[in-house]
């Protein structure tokens, strides 16, 4: 059996506080290796929810794109982005533009969209000097650890995402929807259960009600699947929140989350959610050339603060329209 075979996969086991890591000897052709061993790698993701592959020696954008294409079909074009990314070709993106000194807290990619990726792919071309890990958390265990009264309310009612688009903070309308044509944006919103309102100054305000707990499409297990904490005002650094409230007003923040009835979610709830994530977080510092596969429904991910240059490429794959993810009850007007 060759040195690049998947014989070591039989020994892959998760370690407390870190994701499972598979060490391989650098193959001559990483894209061919990934395509050849796709099924075995995906079996590990199905078992553990995440797999970090170390030793592939990924160095070039085109190489990463070919590896991603070998691992998954249907790479997705991102829509409804909350922050801009740089595109490197169809379905291949830079990591989200976010201040290096600020964490991106645990979330499931596009959990607020009617169609979300079932699989996330990450590749590290350059690891930062310190920090910057893409940490992970098991959504089943997070759900089990939350107080029943809180999780049951969110499961029963869902959660509300509000967005106020502007030209300064977060993704612009065109970056989020792929167009600045009003009619096209309105068609998209109606097709994806998003209520919208054009303000007198021409800016767009949206609200969308989504499920907070979903059943995994393959296992049927209940998962805490949302961005209630990450996109809430209380997760922001205090000085950032105070600045945004001062500039845009409490009801005009670029993004915020609320209970389904529109009432505010208290700081104590957000702190509880984030601390529960932290209790179930696994992290492994990036090394140059690493590859990570993440089951986006079972596993939340984050990006920790860092120093130095960090270059991570991302793809979203296997689009899913989860049953009951968009509750029937609508909010606002469209």
UniProtKB/TrEMBL annotation:
Region span, Disordered: 1-21
Cofactor requirement: Fe(2+)
Boundaries of every TauD/TfdA-like domain copy: 31-314
Entry superkingdom: Bacteria
Keywords: Antibiotic biosynthesis, Dioxygenase, Iron, Oxidoreductase
Keyword Oxidoreductase: yes
A Pfam family matched in the record: TauD
UniProt-listed Enzyme Commission number(s): 1.14.11.-
GO molecular-function term, one example from the UniProt record: dioxygenase activity
Protein name, UniProt field: TauD/TfdA family dioxygenase
PANTHER family: GAMMA-BUTYROBETAINE HYDROXYLASE-RELATED (PTHR10696), TAUD_TFDA-LIKE DOMAIN-CONTAINING PROTEIN (PTHR10696:SF56)
Taxonomic placement: Bacteria, Bacillati, Actinomycetota, Actinomycetes, Kitasatosporales
Biased composition (Polar residues): 1-10
Species in which this protein is naturally found: Streptomyces lonegramiae
InterPro entries tied to this protein: AlphaKG_dependent_hydroxylases, TauD-like_sf, TauD/TfdA-like
